[in-house]
Write a structure and sequence with these properties.
Length: about 210
Amino acid sequence: MAFKVAFAAAALASAAFASNTTGPYTIHITGKTDTSIDGYVGACHAGAAIEALCYASGPVDSSSNSNQFYFDFGGFNPDTGETIQPGWISWLLPYTDPDGNAATQVSPMQLSPSWSSNVAAGLFEPSETYTYVSYDDSRKLYMSGGYDDSAFNATRPQPVVLGPLYNWHLCYQYTGGYYYQSVAWVSTDPPHNPSCEPIDLTLEDITY
């Protein structure tokens, strides 16, 4: 589910926003069943100011902007300063400002559903929309599962909470007008797209 938040071009520089932002990170992609999948997320062109989360095998160039990502916490405790999950993943879109200077725009990740499929492609876009995600003690990204509605009927049931879901997949798919092998979320197994392989996404610190 996507949620909205207001962004401005200078948001990353603001104290309130920066206090909830961590990174940069690389995002390691590893296959759950196909162990040959071992690479990293790279932001790749998918439209005007839109990037997909493409798969790049092998070692990562952590100095490249296309491989650097941030985790933005959804809030913090004003008494303790402790940051609070969930949050969202963001990428900095480079551009040239009206004065000819290099600048960046925060582009949060959102899932773009296809209503004929259970596969939703991940996209970075400089908009007011993002998808909430969290990470566990191993820095693996997940989404909260909400309630299991598989047995719902006219009688109100005792809700069963699903807990963390790790339904990330690597799929050959259209992202805008481009066809890539890129990261997606599969709402229920099996994925409608037969090329999808289950993966883990793990945040890794960039050291200089």
